[in-house]
Request: fold
Amino acid sequence: MLKFVMLPPQDDLRRRWAARLQDELPQFRVVVAETDEDARREITDAEAAFGWVSPDLLCRAEKLRWMQSPQIAPPAEFYYRELIAHPVVVTNPRGTFNDHIAQHILMSLLALARGLPDYLEAQRQRRWDEEARKCPYVDLATATALIVGVGGIGQETARLCAAFGMKVIGVDARWEYDAPSIEKHPPEDLDSLLPRADFVITTVPHTPETEGMWNGERFPLMKPTAYFINIGRGRTTRLDDLVAAIENGVIGGCALDVFEIEPLPSDHKLWALPNVLLTPHIAAKDADNIPERQFQILLDNARRFAAEEPLRNVVDKAVWY
Reply:
């Protein structure tokens, strides 16, 4: 019998998942470790685990072969040197909110294209102003979207952009999805592509290579009318450089759901800049079907693990995704 440990911290959802796994897969003994002490004891002979295996736990894990990450893009400390070197296979729940985040991206894109921030400001001031929009209107049928990071979210975003008649250019290090509507490019082409885009949409995870990739050297390569949309990870973007680019007219504006500093301080300049839309890292927060989708990936991988079949959503630990 295989042993599967649900690592802390626990909540009602994880406990329900553990019970469902036990009911559906009798070849596993599913253990819920409520405390760190429980985790240290139970990890020693476990073949599989859900959650973060800390350096202390990894040293104790004598039989661990598979670990399911609760997050697609966990914090930087998740993939530490010893875990990367360890033979344990890590999988994640990617693909469970592609549609929700893509819809959030399209919300931001449409709002910026139509000048919604200016009209909202007029509304707050109870001002009927047909000339409230300060930036040029963007006709999506003639516009270009550059999507940086064309995984599941980027692919779905590309599909929605194409439905509006937009030209879509994609940049990705590993093309895992069939994307017939996208002009495909490798990462080294990025800087030469930026001048073509009316919207630069980044969905890339935070990795050693992507940290701070959006900065004072890259924003000037964009059109002065272009908009920057970040729905990936905040630490890919230097906020001070982004603020300077907007203040100085280097780019037209931005929409952010993720930030270099979270929560964004109340006195940060971004709050008051024109043509800026900010949401507090909630692009997929309230979608009711995401937990069930994530459980189904966990369940499928557990079945595959027991049958010694290839697992889904295997992570390249060295690059963190």
